[in-house]
UniProtKB/TrEMBL annotation:
Top-level taxon in the UniProt lineage: Eukaryota
UniProt name for this protein: Nucleoredoxin-like protein 2
Gene behind the chain: LOC101846404
UniProt-listed InterPro entries: RdCVF2, Thioredoxin-like_fold, Thioredoxin-like_sf
Residues of the Thioredoxin-like fold domain: 40-135
Pfam families assigned to the protein according to its UniProt record, in alphabetical order: Thioredoxin_8
């Protein structure tokens, strides 16, 4: 993952969860380096936004699947890439709706590079990649919805081998602008 994210700092909810209830603020998030957090794992890039109705529907399932995979100690990490209009919306969405995964900081221009590299034109989108950035699946959302935690078997089996790009059809998605 160091080839794709390098030493980029990603937000983590770990620190937020340690802050006493009465002292929590929107900026009580920790950071971690991508190299440390993503090494040797299947990485799911989750492109989403608070304003997106299909995102709101999908995130509950993703959170449950991710929690179960974590409980089973599967080598997986999710990185939320926000298409929210404001930092306040992004942090509220991340804090209140997302699972215990990472997030690219709001306003980071790396979002545009990732959106272009992985051809993001609608959200929600879950792109599953190898540590080097090669795509395992561009249909992660459909696979999570159809297979639940079983999707990890296929993702993990391709973790270290090349994967050919696949075409994708978009259905119940929100266009990004």
């Amino acid at each position: 993952m160091s080839e794709l994210f390098g030493a980029k700092q990603l937000l983590t909810k770990a620190y937020f969860d340690e802050v006493p209830y009465g002292e929590k603020k929107d900026d009580n998030f920790g950071t971690t380096t991508a190299e440390e957090a993503l090494a040797g794992k299947v990485v799911c890039l989750f492109f989403s936004a608070l304003w997106c109705a299909p995102c709101q529907h999908f995130i509950h399932m993703l959170r449950d699947v991710f929690a179960e995979l974590r409980r089973r100690k599967e080598p997986i990490e999710i990185v939320f890439i926000s298409f929210d209009k404001t930092e306040k919306d992004m942090l509220e969405y991340y804090k209140n709706s997302h699972g215990e995964w990472l997030a690219l900081q709001f306003g980071d221009n790396f979002k545009e590079l990732l959106a272009e590299k992985y051809s993001i034109s609608v959200i929600p989108k879950l792109v599953v990649i190898q540590p080097n950035g090669n795509v395992i699946s561009s249909k992660g959302r459909k696979e999570v919805q159809d297979k639940g935690i079983v999707c990890m078997r296929g993702w993990h089996s391709t973790l270290l081998r090349p994967v050919e790009p696949k075409e994708e059809q978009n259905g119940d998605d929100a266009a990004i602008s």
